[in-house]
User: What shape does this take?
Amino acid sequence: MDVTTTSAALRKTDGGLKLGVPSKGRLMEKTFDWFGARGLDIRRTGSEREYSGAVGGIEGVDLVLLSAGEIPRELEAGRIHLGVTGTDLVRERIAGWDDTVKEVAAMGFGQADLVIAVPKCWIDVDTLEDLDAAAAAFRKVHGHRLRVATKYHRLVREFLRGAGVADYQLVDSQGATEGTVKNLTAEAVADITSTGETLRANHLKVLSDGMIHRSQATLFRSLRAPWGAAERAALAEIMNRLAARV
Amino acid sequence: MPSKDQVRAEAARLKAAFVAAGATAVDPDVLQPADTLLDLYGEDIRARAYVTADPLRGEQMLRPDFTVPVVQMHVARGNGPARYTYAGEVFRRQEVAEPGRSNEYFQAGFEVFDAPDPAAAEAEVFARFAELMSPLGLRAAMGDMGLLTAVVRGLDTTAARRAALMRHIWRPKRFRALLDRYAGRRPVAASRTALLERMRKEVPAQAIAATGPVIGLRTPAEIAHRIETLQEEARTPPLAARQVALIDDLLSIRETPANALARLRDIAVDLAALDPALDRLERRLDAMRAHGVDLDRVEFEASYGRTSMEYYDGFVFGFYAPGRPHLPPVASGGRYDALTRILGRGREIPAVGGMIRPGLALELGAEIAGGATWT
Assistant: This one.
């Protein structure tokens, strides 16, 4: 743990328990609603452009508004004590994530499934075992490994290794991943979907055992943040209110 | 902990011992082209090696081991019998911190490319490592990937099944799942049964066209070909339970080499395909005895090397600190003919070798010497 950086960051904002929440969009609104419904009113302080806020009613809790994608990194570094983000991002971006953060509460929104999908025309491929066999044959015919386009490299690699799929390679795709097969830059994709509509529109189908991870917005606690008496007391109060609701 | 200078000196000492055994010292580059390693190991290597990019040479990797570059060097030099030694750092990326494993550590190794008498070369390599490791009181283990591959090749079933099993020989879980299905002990996926049923009435081209546009590089012909393979598979009778039981027997063997050989000979009564591999094992054990190796203190594990040593395809060995299962092997190695066949562009050069972790050897040596402190 980098204690110096952490305490420097704390000094700058007067200490206290830092709660990181998404700074814009529906994810932010739903997060505010979720806390509000549990007696924890969150509001922004200062102007709209200032990314800070207050968690009403509890002493010593500081709100930090962050882009959702930055929250895993801030939890990992221990610069925030609690943070709201998707379980997919935490698992993808934090090496050994369960030694670094703990799930406090699943929040019931922001659902998204990370799935493996292949062209609909592959009538012979429905399971990972089929994918593996197709990959072996594909490599022999085409001279390169079957390409799976994704931005979730770690999650997909671990999943395929666990399933014993070989002869594939990951190609990085940071956007419009569903289009890669049609554009001949990949043979299959591993991507986030909530309804499967985009995949279907791109003539792709999800493998029946191709669910890599079911993600949703989740409140995480950082094990690396400095937990002094004040932060622990604030956490206990937050937990009380959450428990009262549940 | 020994200092880096001490580890480097120990690595140099080991290298000198291999030079004295007739090896030429080589010094492969730290930066290796990533494509060769990716092609060999697939996506998994990215989780284990550091990948970096060079504007002119493309993706490069910090060498995760020496064996691949040494084989490439040997191939470039035009083959022929040769023996090499090296000492230097290797780099291993870690997704999760593992006790006893560093992301940068020294290796000292010895590789023998020698065709005429493989058993003799294997025995010599093992004996040299055993001698170098002897002051440390380590547990020695050995195995032979050639036994399982011989059994798979000898299975009384289709070529497609044998090839599928062979492909997953280094993935025990997947191998087991395939074996169970071929033996009829695990049901076929419902979707496959439905597909095969449908293919009794339709031709693949029709069914493919019905799904909408064909996208991607994989052609309808490839899909139709796979369906034929599935149809052949469905017509194939299950593997005889007796054959599966023989594989289970073989994989459970864990005894002294002499006892293991006796049990393997029993198994071979029902599985003649095993005989040549056993004759070779017997010659290897005899050659080891001739080198003065005390085989009663070595454990023979038939499943040894199946998970961690993917490029070894024959004799495999390792030396471990007893009672310290979390530590990596102090030394390990084996035969890797298949690797030379791939890197030699189809031309196989029989090769056997191994490497020592000098840092770990020094640490254990100091413990034995009564906790000498490193200065």
